[in-house]
Amino acid sequence: MDADLQDDPEEIPALIKKLNDGYDLVSGWKKVRRDPFIKKQTSKIFNLVTSIMVGKRLHDYNCGLKVYLKDVVKNIKVYGEMHRYIPALAHLSGYRVSEIPVMHHQRKYGKTKFGVSRFLNGIFDLITVIFTTRYIKRPLHLFGFIGVLSFTAGLAILTYLTILKFFESTPIEGRPLFFVGILLAIVGAQFFSIGLIGEMITKNSTDNDNVIIDKTLG
């Protein structure tokens, strides 16, 4: 929980009670938030985008007040500023995640660290979370998809210009659209190649079979 006393320790028993209903992680939801207007609005955008990309709807991913089972703490790898994505990492790892509304007080001590740089860092961290959980063992699904889209767009542009060249005698040399088509085709091929290389590296990785064991029977 945060150290500025905005989170209320008296909410901990309610969080634990919810955890005992069969969840692995329960996060607080500052439903009535005592923060500046701009911080509240950017937080709504942040939580909506995160919910869509992660596939788990939570109103407050970044609430510091959370309770976890021991296995979650042992198996979720958190570094840098990934603490704001602990519920996302837990959900993507197969854990059961929920939230309940909690009391949020006015700040009494310290100053907020919120700013543009922190918002941008949050976006970059979200991309890292998605890539290292969903695509770390199937990079071609990500890079290949982007590559195919880019190559197809470039090929469509070049085909269009070729038709103009042969049927309407329209010159294509020096046209910006011509260079855009070539660029998209080359970038698409490169992305697809990166995906293939990533697949080969993944297949040879000694960590390829890492799994989280829920329980051992027998």
Can you walk through the features of this model?
It is a single chain. The mean pLDDT is 85. By secondary structure, this protein is mainly alpha-helical. It is elongated and about 80 Å long. The longest helix has 29 residues, at 139-167. Helix 2 runs parallel beside helix 5. The protein is built from seven helices and three strands. The chain has helices at 12-19, 37-54, 70-75, 86-92, 116-134, 139-167, 176-203; strands spanning 25-29, 66-68, 97-101. It folds into two domains: 9-134, no CATH class; 139-203.
In short:
By secondary structure, this protein is mainly alpha-helical. Helices cover 53% and strands 6% of the residues. It has helices at residues 12-19, 37-54, 70-75, 86-92, 116-134, 139-167, 176-203; strands at residues 25-29, 66-68, 97-101.
Average pLDDT taken over every residue: 85
Please trace the helix and strand order, writing H or E for each element.
Answer: HEHEHHEHHH
Percent of residues in helices comes to: 40-55%
Task: List low-pLDDT spans.
Answer: none
> Could you say which overall geometry the principal axes of the C-alpha atoms support?
elongated
How many DSSP-defined strands? 3
Most strands sheet? 3 strands, mixed
Structural class: mainly alpha
Assembly status: single chain
Q: Name the strands of the widest sheet in spatial order.
A: 2-1-3
| Range of strand content | 5-15%
Total helix count? 7
Radius of gyration: 24 Å
Domain module tally: 2
